[in-house]
Write a structure and sequence with these properties.
303 residues; alpha+beta; Beta-lactamase; two-stranded antiparallel sheet; 35% helix; globular
């Protein structure tokens, strides 16, 4: 469900990407001549011509360059971030803050769980019901009720310090909180890592709800799944922006678990002529990013 409200879209359209260095190893070979009987004295060892070499190609870095070029075509209206929890492949392109719409509901749930005392204490039946409605069917009334229980923007800001988020700015209304693709990746990392601030039970609870999102909201990053993927988790956000002539913002965050990869991925976007168009852009971007990263790590012994 979408939450409508007037808002100001950021004009900071700066694109950045994670880069790594290329390295190569040069080798040389040396040979020697030996005299045969009666040939006279040896002339001693003679260096052979060096074997020509080229620097090793970092395939992940090459994939990042292609992903950056893909995202830059959208002139600041698209940002992506992804990493493989089972390997080293990772990419982040786009530093602009986007309004969250309903993807912030995952953040609200994390903040709610962090307030439990002692940590990991089960939610009450009523709070659990609201949490399920907020994530599984994106219920706005449930989100509003839980927003109050975490003390609104102040509570979300406090939780985000514990979660390691650096670029998310809570608003007086949850739906117009702003965030970056990099921060959404940090959130997903905190929600899945044994080293994160949530207990194993809480991490399982959050992922369980994201896995149960109703069928007509299971679009977005889930489009990047390969046949045979073990499981997928998603939360989407969508809304119109009054100050952008009613154009659509469409965001998607989630996780895709495969045989050789455990992807965390966030795609943020806006300035779409329709929700359908926004979904198409997000799904194509997610699919392209994971296709590039899978190909770049295809020869790795472990990912």
């Amino acid at each position: 469900m979408a939450e409508r409200s007037g808002r100001q879209v950021s004009r900071r359209w700066v694109v950045s990407a994670v880069t790594v260095s290329l390295a190569g190893v040069a080798t040389a070979a040396f040979g020697a001549t030996r005299p045969r009987d009666g040939d006279g004295p040896s002339h001693g060892p003679t260096p052979a011509s060096p074997v020509p070499t080229t620097p090793a190609i970092d395939r992940v870095d090459e994939a990042r360059k292609r992903i950056r070029a893909y995202v830059e075509r959208y002139d600041g209206h698209l940002a992506v971030a992804a990493l493989d929890r089972q390997g080293t492949a990772a990419v982040t392109v786009g530093t602009r803050r986007f309004e969250t719409a309903s993807i912030v509901k995952v953040n609200i749930l994390a903040a709610l769980l962090l307030r439990q005392n002692p940590p990991g204490r089960a939610l009450s039946a009523d709070t659990r019901r609201l949490a399920e409605a907020m994530i599984v069917s994106s219920d706005n009334d449930a989100a509003g009720a839980l927003w109050q229980r975490i003390d609104g923007s102040r509570g979300l800001a406090a939780a985000n310090r514990a979660l390691g988020l650096r670029e998310t700015k809570p608003s007086v209304h949850w739906g117009i909180t702003t965030t970056t693709a990099a921060d959404q990746l940090r959130l997903l990392t905190a929600l899945t890592s044994p080293d994160g601030p949530l207990t194993p039970q809480d991490r399982t609870f959050v992922m369980g709800l994201m896995q149960k999102v109703i069928p007509d909201q299971r679009w977005g990053v889930t489009a990047a799944r390969e046949t045979g993927s073990r499981s997928s988790y998603v939360k989407n956000g969508w809304d119109t922006v009054d100050v952008d002539d009613g154009r659509w913002l469409v965001n998607s965050i989630g996780r895709i678990v495969e045989a050789r990869h455990d992807w965390l991925i966030a795609v943020l976007s806006d300035h779409h002529v329709s929700q359908k168009e926004g979904i198409r852009v997000v799904e194509r971007a997610a699919t392209y990013v994971l296709k590039e990263l899978r190909a770049a790590t295809a020869g790795d012994g472990a990912s």
